[in-house]
Specification:
214 residues, mainly alpha, ABC transporter transmembrane region fold, 91% helix
Length: 214
């Protein structure tokens, strides 16, 4: 019941958010000076109204829902870990500051790449709209190849930026996984030492490891 309620509430909120964003953005754009529309392509504006607002919707709702759920799960897990061994808990959390710094730096760079990707996609959309809208002119002057070349150039630019983002995300998660593996190994070895020296029982160590993995 709680899962269904959470899904319904966040889905409803996401639809309201994207509708409000589109209304506000359209109102803002429609009040721009005429000169703004002279230098800005219609397709780019349409892309901003549709694709960009959808991206913001996902970030503000779906991603937020997952983040809150993961935060709640992690908080409960850390509480159980502290109840088993505060020493091992502090050792496990030692990698958190390092990962936090890495996430902040990666986030800034990915944000910049995302803006470039959205801009290239918007231009590609604008080129397609202009070509289809003036298809009679394009055909009359045999400019199909020119239109295809322009569109392909922007699509390829979007692809390269997307591949760069994918590479960075892959390297990041690989690094996080490696750090997590080393952290678990350190916990196991230190936990074994505490068990041998009598500061911790085997049952407590087993419980701690299970809590840390969940």
């Amino acid at each position: 019941v709680s899962t269904a309620l959470r899904s319904w509430l966040f889905s409803s909120a996401s639809e309201r958010v994207v509708a409000r964003l589109r209304r506000d953005l359209f109102s803002h754009l429609i009040h721009q000076e005429i000169a703004f529309f002279d230098v800005t392509r219609t397709g780019e504006l349409l892309s901003r109204l549709s694709e960009d607002t959808q991206i913001i919707k996902n970030a503000a709702t779906t991603n937020l829902s997952e983040a809150l759920r993961n935060l709640a799960t992690a908080s409960i897990g850390v509480a159980f870990m502290f109840s088993s061994s505060w020493k091992l808990t502090l050792l496990s959390l030692a990698i958190v500051p390092v990962i936090s710094v890495a996430i902040r730096r990666l986030g800034r760079y990915l944000k910049e790449l995302s803006h470039k990707t959205q801009a290239a996609a918007a231009v590609a959309s604008s080129i397609a709209e202009e070509s289809f809208g003036a298809i009679r002119t394009v055909r009359s002057f045999a400019q199909e190849g020119f239109a295809i070349s322009n569109y392909t150039e922007k699509v390829d630019e979007t692809l390269q930026l997307g591949l760069k983002q994918a590479k960075l995300v892959g390297l990041f998660f690989g690094g996080v996984n490696a750090a997590f593996t080393f952290s678990v190994m350190a916990v196991v070895f230190y936990g074994a030492y505490l068990t041998i020296t009598g500061f911790m029982t085997v049952g407590s160590l087993t419980s701690f490891i299970l809590y840390s993995l969940t």
